[in-house]
Design brief:
mainly alpha; two-stranded antiparallel sheet; 4 helices; 2 strands; 79% helix
């Protein structure tokens, strides 16, 4: 009987922790979404919508290219991809859930990869100048 009570207690606390962490990340995501919309609107109001689109397009292209790259890695079929229009996106057919989850963080991985190349290049230039 003690083992059963312990098992129920562990399961309850595990589910509670998972729900609380999920709630935290949903709230954090919602806050980031609200801040992003606010900043996007303010930037477009001050500098104009076309300026906003042209300044953010390179980052959006890298973001969507990251999704596309991981679609290829996990053999998801890319149904449509637009990188050079105001509505940039990648539409894929999901083949496996593990690949889908990793593909969702692929844009972050792509930015880390590109920034590491950029900073490595800049460090090499600086080292070359000082030598």
């Amino acid at each position: 009987m003690i083992v059963l009570e312990y098992f129920k207690d562990v399961c309850f606390k595990s589910v509670l922790i998972i729900l609380l962490l999920s709630l935290y990340f949903v709230m954090l995501g919602g806050l980031m979404h609200l801040m992003s919309n606010f900043l996007r609107k303010k930037f477009a109001d001050v500098f104009g919508l076309k300026t906003y689109i042209y300044l953010t397009a390179p980052g959006v292209m890298v973001h969507e290219s990251g999704h596309a790259l991981f679609c290829l890695v996990f053999r998801h079929k890319i149904l449509e991809m637009r990188l050079f229009s105001p509505d940039l996106y990648v539409i894929e057919k999901v083949v496996n859930l593990g690949g889908f989850v990793i593909m969702q963080i692929s844009s972050i991985l792509m930015f880390i990869f590109l920034f590491s190349i950029l900073f490595g290049f800049l460090a090499a230039l600086r080292k070359r100048r000082t030598a």
